[in-house]
């Protein structure tokens, strides 16, 4: 029986200062994320859904667009886990290696990617998330509303920024563009992206498969 | 109440066949044209100030919140709306018309989000007042008791709607089919688009309460009902609504 637990981020709550304050982590992780987990556990308590892992639960409860009662909490629980692992102290800047190659291949340049990512962030109206995903073996930017995430459409998420107002209001108030700049310049973990890309390659051919010479 | 539109006139010159003078036609008179001045009203929406100072709702809603919520968020909706409608026919609409028109029966046009939010925020600032909160009286209370059972039932339902509105949105008390009811809407949606009459609203976008309450939306909703809501505004809107809606059996006067 799965009772989901609130996993701690892979860094101390003050480790992202001054780019994301300890106060923000205390509320965002300690209250919001915790509430999604607690409420999800209450919703699935004593039902078959307890046997699913979180990713399965998200996809199952999305129910092809007719979401079940626990979808919002499940989606948000998953999204926040993914978000905390998508940022890191000393993060930001440009990727290198294969991640940079693919970004240049699929966006034209890193600057184009950053521009498109930020444009998606400012234009996501209301609450939501902006993702870098692998879709049809190509990188692209996806924005989703509320609790939705790329898993429900079968895409592979590589990174995400939370644009619910609770994610940035204490530090940036209405300045969502500044928050997005800070995310890209100071927070995003390109190592995490590289790791997710590597795992994705177990499932997706990113180019012509190469048959090894013997 | 819509944001005020300022009218600027423009001159329209075009070929028109108008007689130069007089009403009697004469075979010798040839039609001539003169320029026709037509004034086309152009609406640039303005950010109206709330009917109280920005610190007047302290400590229940901080001056800092008003400075951001009204001074930045609401202002941006107005500014961006003006940019979107600049030079288009939409400039001729008042804000309520624009909201309903741009909603486009569920296929919203580009300016709907800004129009809806501009209208919603105007309505919100007028729905709260220093010294507000508590219970209504008179006809408002009668109708609440008639349609919810009791004032306590109303507050319970209103708060439940507020905490369960997932993501950004609003919670309204509306007049629908001649009865009071509670409606929660997402993002920029409001009751006008479905033809309901809004009587009051609370903004549950996080920007509305995050500086003062952080994640504690239930506390914010309690404060709204206990300390902020203007029942006078509700009574005024109800009175105006009665020009359009029969709330009970129409009474035919004796005589």
TrEMBL record, chain A:
Keyword Oxidoreductase listed: yes
Entry keyword annotation includes Metal-binding: yes
Ranges for domain Manganese/iron superoxide dismutase C-terminal: 95-194
Residue ranges of every copy of the Manganese/iron superoxide dismutase N-terminal domain listed in the record: 3-86
Pfam families found in the cross-reference section: Sod_Fe_C, Sod_Fe_N
PROSITE patterns, A to Z: SOD_MN
The entry's keywords: Metal-binding, Oxidoreductase
Catalytic reaction(s) noted: 2 superoxide + 2 H(+) = H2O2 + O2
Enzyme Commission number(s): 1.15.1.1
Entry cofactors: Fe cation
Described purpose of this protein according to its UniProt entry: Destroys radicals which are normally produced within the cells and which are toxic to biological systems.
Family designation: Belongs to the iron/manganese superoxide dismutase family.
Protein name: Superoxide dismutase
Species this chain originates from: Sphagnum jensenii
Automatic annotation (TrEMBL), chain B:
UniProt-listed Pfam families: Sod_Fe_C (PF02777), Sod_Fe_N (PF00081)
Entry EC number(s): 1.15.1.1
Claim: DNA-binding is one of the keywords in the record: no
Ranges in a coiled coil: none
Catalytic reaction equation(s): 2 superoxide + 2 H(+) = H2O2 + O2
Alphabetized InterPro entries for the sequence: Mn/Fe_SOD, Mn/Fe_SOD_BS, Mn/Fe_SOD_C, Mn/Fe_SOD_N, Mn/Fe_SOD_N_sf, SOD_C_sf
Domain Manganese/iron superoxide dismutase N-terminal span(s) in chain numbering: 44-127
UniProt keyword annotations, A-Z: Metal-binding, Oxidoreductase
Cofactors that this protein relies on: Fe cation
Domain Manganese/iron superoxide dismutase C-terminal per the UniProt entry, residue ranges: 136-235
Record carries keyword Cell division: no
Enzyme class: oxidoreductase
Role summary: Destroys radicals which are normally produced within the cells and which are toxic to biological systems.
Family, similarity comment: Belongs to the iron/manganese superoxide dismutase family.
Protein name: Superoxide dismutase
Organism for this UniProt entry: Sphagnum jensenii
